[in-house]
Amino acid sequence: HPPGLDDLGFAAPAVAAIRRLLQHPAGIVILTGPTGSGKTTTIYAMVRDLLARGHSPATLITIEDPVESALEGISQVELRRDDPAWGYAEALRAVLRHDVKTLVIGELRDREVTRVALDAALTGHRVITTYHAGDIGGVYARLLHQGFEPFQVAAAVTGVVAQRLLRGRADGAPVPVAAVLEADDAWREVVMAAPGLGDLRRRAGAVPGADLEAAARDLAAAGRIDAKEAILL
């Protein structure tokens, strides 16, 4: 069967943190990590988790480029490559005219898409998406660098999941690792002060569960990866 959150191989605390992020009825959950690190698989598992907990399929819509996997009973909107007038922003605006509670957006590809997504999160929608920013601090730094107001970013973002695939010690098979930042009032105050990238990375790394290197060191200590894999992050 298609993988759920418990099947992804993440440490139990990371799975629990992702589930807590999904309990928020509004706000944006951002996944970040290199291409091929499994972000889309994680998003589909998050959608299945919402459905299993009673979310109506009729009010959950995905916007993807392309649709990577069919989700039963869900409206999945595919961007049209041959039509530059039908990009993420246009599809997002069209979808928001419907009764939608959860929006899955394949990627915050540009500033306009990000603006519409933040607005949706601030007006009572749950948004799940990916963002090319490298790590948790990078997500916030990029949002602020794109010119969004610190209070807007602080209020809209429920949390960030950073993930990687590391080489397993036993057979070289990929071992997934995730760090999850759950935005609380203390973290929102950090964001409101609009710190730079280095400061954001340092402050995010001090939040329990949000340090990807610490999560990788735990895997090394458990013998699942070589210690050098943790250092390469």
Give the low-pLDDT segments.
none
Helicity level:
40-55%
Assembly level: single chain
Tally of separate helices: 10
Characterize the overall form. globular
Q: Could you explain the architecture of this structure?
A:
This protein has 233 residues and is of the alpha/beta class. The chain contains ten helices and seven strands. It has a seven-stranded mixed beta sheet with strand order 3-2-4-5-1-6-7, with helices on both faces. Helix 3 runs parallel beside helix 4, helix 5 packs antiparallel against helix 8 and helix 6 runs antiparallel to helix 7. The longest helix has 14 residues. The protein is globular, with a radius of gyration of 17 Å. The model has no long low-confidence stretch (mean pLDDT 94).
How would you summarize this macromolecular structure in one to three sentences?
The chain is about 40% helix and about 20% strand.
Summarize the topology:
Blueprint: H1 12-22, E1 27-32, H2 39-52, E2 60-64, E3 75-78, H3 88-95, E4 102-105, H4 111-122, E5 126-130, H5 136-145, H6 150-156, E6 157-167, E7 174-182, H7 185-192, H8 197-205, H9 212-221, H10 227-231
Parallel strand pairs: 1-5, 1-6, 2-3, 2-4, 4-5
Antiparallel strand pairs: 6-7
